[in-house]
Amino acid sequence: MDWVHDIFRNIHVVGGFIGLALFWIPLLSKKGSPLHKKTGKIWVWLARVVLFTAFAGVLMYIPQLQAKGHGLVSHPNSYAFILFLGYLSVITFIITIYAVDVLQHKKDISGLATPYMKLMAWLSILLSGLIVAYALILRPEMMPVLLALSPVGFTTGMGMLSYMGGKESSPRGWLYEHLGSMIGAGIAFHTAFAVFGMTRMFDIGLTGWVAVIPWILPAAIGIPASIIWRRHYQRKFKEIPA
């Protein structure tokens, strides 16, 4: 099965690098333009391939740990990293499909609130809770990272339920949901690159508290950027004072 794992890993790496560059085209291009729509659709499909191969890689690696006698509870350090990758893959997939469905149902939110999409929202919240519990109970070395990034699943799920419940008062709520979700997916892509790609490409060996920086830097930049972007459009549409 090693050759299958290698194929998935190569697809994941190539797709991830392409997606990293492609992400910025729909983000910076004029919203609603042909360029924005076309590159956005390509990125979404590419993201699905990258996320699928990442999650598949996680599933293939777990039996290898078990074969070494590393149990989920007895060796938390062996599992923390791989479990977080699986968590990040699932949450990013949920964010991506939600961002697309928001556009498809921007005129009627009720069409978005399907049992499947609600299940995805609750799954996001559940996974966030499980990661927090794993970090606090078993206390792996990665505990600060797990606790710092695990709320992403909670906030994603709660935001989805709130919007689907009709709690967004702005008529352009679909735009804010779409932009926020896509930026969230982009944060995940850049986090993966910062943690795996950049450190290996440039042979950067970070130790101590500095090693946490690649994990949290994309979120530290992306989340404020998302807030600023939303306020920009709110001012543009005169929903808040300029």
UniProtKB/TrEMBL annotation:
The chain crosses the membrane at residues 12-30, 42-62, 78-99, 119-137, 143-163, 175-196, 208-229. The keyword Disulfide bond does not apply. It comes from the Bacteria. Keywords: Membrane, Transmembrane, Transmembrane helix. This is DUF2306 domain-containing protein. It comes from Marinicella sediminis. The lineage of its organism: Bacteria, Pseudomonadati, Pseudomonadota, Gammaproteobacteria, Lysobacterales.
